[in-house]
Each structure stands twice: as structure tokens, then as C-alpha cells.
Amino acid sequence: MSLDPERNRAAGLQGQVENLSKENSADFWAELSAKLPSGKSEEDKKQRKQLFNAFDANGNGCLSLAEVDKGIGTVIKNEALFSAKRPIMRAFQAAKGLSQSKKPLDDDTINRKEFQELLGYLRQYFELYVMFAVVDKSDDNRSVKDIHLENLEKKKERKQTNPNEG
């Protein structure tokens, strides 16, 4: 097993992904979407307010990345999402600063308005993460394009050192 924690998480996710590709896949995604209310309906707004308050343990009206991460683990309670740190971090970074309102803290937090976007980004980025895990059979977190470019570079280097090689 790799010493890279993200790779270990991805390896664990691979098993979960295989389960998602079976009959319970639709149930999993429907349940996850229900736990991430990012819509504009009154019900979503109400759920989002409750979720934000549950995440905001210190009650300062802003969420740090650590609070979001902890909230995903303790409030949303979805192990697959909680173990996917890259999508969590990317969703947080994407949502941070979207609102033009003044925040009581600094730019390293999200407010209630940005929280709606965070939930939508979490769902989208996690779905992309899972799709990538399905196609990343080598478990090296590299795309086919990355591998192809690396192989082209190696071929170019070989050709420069040995011009007679085809």
C-alpha cells in the first residue's frame, strides 16, 4: 500500500466505487443529493440553514475548511464523501469568495450565501472524483493525457540520445 494518504483514500474509494456501479448506485447518489441541499426551494433553504448551523459549532457565522470537513464527517455522515479530501478542498476553494458580502472573519472562510454553492460544488466535484477513480485503473491519479505526454517526452529524449532509433 502507498504511503500517500490521498492515494490510500482513492484506493479505498475504488472499492466503494465498485459498489456504486452495482444496483445501489442510484440510491447512493439520491441520498447524497438529499444530504447536500443546494437548490432554491424553501425546503432546501430550510435544510441548508440547519446544516450550516450544525457545521458552525462556534457560532461565528462563517465556516473554515476544517469545520466543513468535520461537518461532512459528523453531520452528513457519508464516509465516501468524507474520505475524498481533494473534492472537499476544491469545492471549498471554489465557493470561497463568491459572495460579495462582508465577512466577520477573513477570506479563508465561507458564509451562509457561499454555503449553498459549496454544497453544489461538493456534489459535482465528488461525482467527477468518483468517475475519475473508475477510469484510473492504475491508481496513480494521472490522466491518459498525462501518461501520453510523459511517454512522448521519453521517446523524444531517446531520439535525441540515439538519432538512429526509429
UniProtKB/TrEMBL annotation:
Xref: PROSITE patterns: EF_HAND_1, EF_HAND_2
Keyword set includes Calcium: yes
Pfam families: FCaBP_EF-hand
Domain EF-hand: 43-78
InterPro entries, sorted: EF-hand-dom_pair, EF_Hand_1_Ca_BS, EF_hand_dom, FCABP_EF-hand
Extent of the signal sequence: none
Domain of life: Eukaryota
Keyword line: Calcium
Keyword Cell cycle among record annotations: no
GO MF: calcium ion binding
Family: Belongs to the calflagin family.
Protein name per the record: EF-hand domain-containing protein
Lineage: Eukaryota, Haptista, Haptophyta, Prymnesiophyceae, Isochrysidales
